[in-house]
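Here is one chain, start to finish.
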Amino acid sequence: MAKNKLRTAILGLDKGGISLLRAASSVGSFEIQAVADKDVKIVEKAASEYKCVGYDDYRQLIIQNQFDCLLVAAGLYSCDEYIKTAMKKKFNILKLAPPARNVEEAMEFVRIAEEEKIKFVIANPCRFAKSFVVLREFLQKKHLEQIFLITALCSGGGEGRSVWQSDPKLAGGGVLLHNCYEIIDQIMWNFPIPQQIYSLNTNVAGDKQQRLYLTEDTAIVTMKFSDTFFGNITASRCATLDVEEKVLKVYGKEKNLTVSDNKFIVSDNSGRVREEREYEDDLIGREKALLENFALSILSPDKNKVMSSGRENLKNMVFIESAYLSARTSMPEEPDRILQMTQREDLNIWAGHK
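Its structure:
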């Protein structure tokens, strides 16, 4: 680490990886030293543009170098063991959401990071979107009384999706895990963990047998927070949609809130808009903000708390695991039970290492 610059590498150069690379290159705390992807042409282009070393082998990138941090955009099926190796070499990790394919895998990443005393951070750009920042402040200041319902809509295009994302073993899940993660993060960040979750998942496969071997592209999740507080998420992926849409609505006794990527709206119970704010921030700006937070948490940890740690994101993974379990059993599941089981297992692992 020289002149307060973090020696940095990017793992995976798909659309998300390129966006992360652009954002990191514009943040003064990062020195991009290497990029890696399985596609040689993409690697050569990025390495030339950013004046860094290119690799088409993830393993070689990690074992031949010593970086301060690794920004991970590659699918975990292709690099999970390499990420663990990087952690054991003391690389701080920032991973595009989701953090893992399942709770067990996420827990192992968290455990290794804590053992090695490094940062394992999950990129949740919505936490830095101005509209969602205002939502959190609004809720923390208790400007919305007696919340009884939240609803979320998450839809996105299916074009350009990698083939591996259709395979449950490689991807871990479909639209809930890969498209709805940020909305689920907002729910788990701003509200208590639901007492129960009930979920229905499906996809457009022609027959029931085939659906078992494909990730879901449609899901409905119902949440019970208490006897008087409920919620639901409707998620879909459609090839005819060009842009992703994320909308969260919160219903209170006298006011309702509607929040999207760029808007924050307060309305009364008759539907009349009382306040509307529109923001011009974009994904690159949000990624720059989260990368700045990540860098400062490494360079000045005593003064800067990381915004979205891997351990904090375990709640999101437990939520998603509960939804997938409910879809398989056709019964409501209790996220807190899974979370407690995970925590007990974590304590047992820690005890075994001491």
